[in-house]
Design brief:
This protein is an alpha/beta fold and 347 residues long. Helices cover 60% and strands 7% of the residues. It has a five-stranded parallel β-sheet with strand order 2-1-3-4-5, with helices on both faces.
């Protein structure tokens, strides 16, 4: 039973509402979380406000708590599942018959953060669109098959992590080759959507509300040459992508000499370290693909903060970056990008 059952709040401006909802999802109280959103609906709070001003920011806070090592990944997953159920409860009471066209909403292949784009799908339904929500990690060929089968007016494509940019590019090109324009969203496309435009998306939106406005006002755009941005990634990107395993294991083999505390790691910490080195190479490849070191420097700064919250000093990450760089001495763009990451960490 929630604190708001008997006297549901009439405004999301009350910070206690968000605090209580966060507590409920953090405690795994699905029924309590749904009671909160139902109470808000009963009090006349519009469904879009509940989605955008309660569920979405709470999910952002959940991610921050995980990054700060205050919540485990299991607790974060459980909270996300409850927010998905709360979103479904809001949607069930706010259904509207379609009056506009048809939109396919999906995450790019390898992208598993589906709640933000699910919120977009529900917002589009409320605005009168018929929505095909395909969910997380949709392989490009399957997405294109769906487009040919359903003939939508647009594709809304989400990418939250920059390492998926090469796959996002392939998906955008394939959609536009099928004659379907693409609106991109998600922080993986970079500040102001700069990498979405670089990859050929017809439009970019900073959030669900902006995407709804763009689709209602500026759609459909004229789909130009789908291959106009079709050849990103040079020899350095190709080398790094193809030799990912060699770079990761080469750095891991030398890490004890560069960072001696690794010698005392148990298997779990060794596995985590190997995974972190994989992320280093993946973000390096993404930065080389779009030709923007900021993809990598932002990752390096964020990773340093996450590791510090878990008791791993920045010197460990610095050691890993140097060991990857040592294997790429003949690749000037890659080494310059790694050096930029090292400078960012030092700063």
């Amino acid at each position: 039973m929630t604190a708001f059952t008997s006297t549901p709040p009439g405004s999301l401006d009350d910070p206690e509402v968000a605090a209580e909802y966060l507590r409920l999802v953090g405690d795994g109280d699905e029924y309590g979380a749904i009671e909160v959103v139902n109470g808000l609906l009963d009090a006349g709070v519009p469904a879009p406000r509940i989605m955008l001003d309660l569920i979405a920011p709470t999910q952002g806070r959940v991610g921050e708590l995980w990054a700060a090592n205050e919540w485990s990944i299991a607790r974060e997953h459980a909270a996300t599942a409850i927010s998905e159920r709360a979103l479904a409860a809001v949607s069930a009471r706010s259904a509207a018959r379609p009056t506009r066209g048809r939109v396919t909403v999906a995450c790019v292949d390898g992208e598993w953060h589906a709640l933000p784009v699910r919120i977009l799908g529900e917002m589009l339904r409320l605005d009168g669109w018929r929505v095909d929500f395909l969910g997380a990690s949709v392989p490009g060929p399957h997405l294109v098959t769906h487009l040919h089968q359903t003939g939508p007016d647009a594709v809304a494509l989400s990418c939250m992590i920059a390492t998926r940019l090469p796959r996002a590019h392939a998906a955008i090109t394939a959609c536009r080759s099928a004659g379907v324009p693409v609106i991109a969203g998600g922080r993986g496309f970079g500040p102001d959507g700069r990498w979405a435009h670089r990859l050929g998306a017809d439009a970019w939106a900073a959030g669900a509300q902006e995407a709804v406005v763009r689709l209602a006002r500026d759609w459909p755009p004229v789909v130009g040459d789908p291959y106009g941005n079709g050849f990103l990634g040079d020899d350095e990107y190709t080398y790094v992508a193809r030799h990912r395993g060699d770079l990761v294991h080469g750095a891991m083999a030398r890490l004890v000499a560069e960072y001696p505390p690794v010698a005392a790691y148990d298997q779990r910490r060794l596995d985590s370290t190997l995974e972190d080195l994989g992320h280093v190479v993946d973000f390096l490849a993404a930065a080389l693909y779009v030709g923007d070191p900021e993809v990598f420097t932002d990752f390096a700064a964020w990773t340093a903060a996450v590791l510090e919250a878990r008791g791993v000093p920045a010197t460990a990450l610095v050691a890993g970056l140097r060991l990857v760089r040592d294997q790429l001495r003949d690749f000037p763009a890659a080494t310059a990008t790694l050096d930029a990451g090292l400078t960012r960490i030092a700063g």
